[in-house]
Amino acid sequence: MTTTTTAGPAAARRRRRGDVQGSGRLAATLLSPTFIVLALVVGYPVISAFRESLYQRGQGLDAQGFVVQGDKFVGLRNYTDIFTGPNSDAFWNAFWNTTFFTVVTVVLETVLGVAMALVMHRAFRGRGLVRASILVPWAIPTVVSGLLWRWVFQADGVANAIIGKQVLWTTEGFHAKLAVIIADTWKTAPFVGLLVLAGLQVIPREVHEAARVDGAGAWHSFWRITLPMVKPVLLVAVLFRLLDVLRMFDLPAVLIGLHKDSVETLTMIAYDEATNLRYGPAAAYATILFVYVAVVAYTFVKLLGADIIGDMRQTRASRPARPKRRPLAAAGEVAA
Fold first, then answer.
1. For 157, which DSSP code?
2. Cα dihedral sign, 125-129-135-137
């Protein structure tokens, strides 16, 4: 006579639930130092800046007519002054300058960076020297790069000598924007090229050899094989450059100068408010810039990034269920 006792489905669910909870607690424990550091270096400054943006520093009169100096709570007045007040023209000019620089420079740097990566990836004599020379602009500090390009764009500089005209690059006008775009593209396109080169080096050579055997040309091979396989690395590089250009300050400030409407960005106008001890409006500008950067990053990731968790869930859902195994005799059977 044989008596069989097996664990019910409820016990199995409890075991799985316990394993998931244990994994969740372990993950929370391992990630807690990172969350603490992020809260200190990101969360606290953001909250402090938003709190500061609700105040204005200055002097006024109290109910008795005495002069009172210090911080005064004004609510959202700093934000309304930025969008619709007397400072609205300066804000919208800086906003459009920032957006223009971001779009133009990121597009140019992406195209040139991919081209540089393809050149550096090819095997030819002197490839090491070419790689080193391409990466030199990225290694130069931004302030030094701005000074170098300021000498190039002087009235008697190299740029005017090449084009044969007298252009005042460091004054107001579209030529000032063009100077900033050229300098920024020259400096940071190698960064994109370096990341794309890392992606190219992990592509198996057999893939391109098989494409050539099948009769694929160079353009078809690049568009159908190379670009899709380096897409994750390229998206990371573009995202980094988007976040960096949106916070552009030092290059236009050194190359063109402060208080120039043609190249003034959101960070520059926030800096100008802070140097004039208007910390409330400066914090409001910084908060708006933070929200702008966050929205751009989130939109970029949602539109072009991969939903890894969703893909994993779909893969698991489409995977066929495994057949249930019969319990072993040692796991709950009492033989008589």
1. S
2. negative
Q: What is the pTM of this model?
A: 0.76
Give the angle 94-188-296 at the CA atoms, nearest 5°. Answer: 45
SS3 state at 91: helix
Neighbours of 20 (CB within 10 A): 10
Cβ contacts of 206 within 8 Å, gap of 6 or more: none
DSSP string, 179-246: HHHHHHHHHHHHHHHHHHHHHHTTS-HHHHHHHHHTT--HHHHIIIIIHHHHHHHHHHHHHHHHHHHH
Note the pLDDT tens digit of each residue in 139-191: 888 999 999 999 999 888 888 888 888 888 888 889 999 999 999 999 999 99
Could you read off the pLDDT of 249-260 as tens digits, one per residue?
989 999 998 888
Tokens of 248: 């552009």
Sign of CA dihedral 329, 330, 331, 336: positive
pLDDT tier, 270 (very low <50, low <70, confident <90, very high otherwise):
very high
> First CA to last CA across the chain, in angstroms?
5
Which three-class secondary structure state does DSSP give residue 2?
strand
In whole angstroms, give the CA distance from residue 244 to residue 265: 13
pLDDT tens-place string over residues 189-211: 999 998 998 888 888 777 767 77
pLDDT tens per residue across span 308-328: 344 444 444 444 444 444 444
263 φ, ψ to 5°? -125, 10
Q: What dihedral do alpha carbons 225, 228, 234, 235 form, nearest 10°?
A: 180
Which are the contacts of 208, defined by CB distance < 8 A and separation ≥ 6? 221, 225, 226
| DSSP tag of 41 | I
Q: Taking the CA atoms of 14, 16, 18 and 20 in sequence, report the sign of the dihedral they define.
A: negative
What would the two tokens of residue 268 be? Answer: 């520059």
DSSP for 69-90, please give it: EEEEE-TTHHHHHHHHSTTHHH
Predicted local confidence at residue 31, as pLDDT: 83
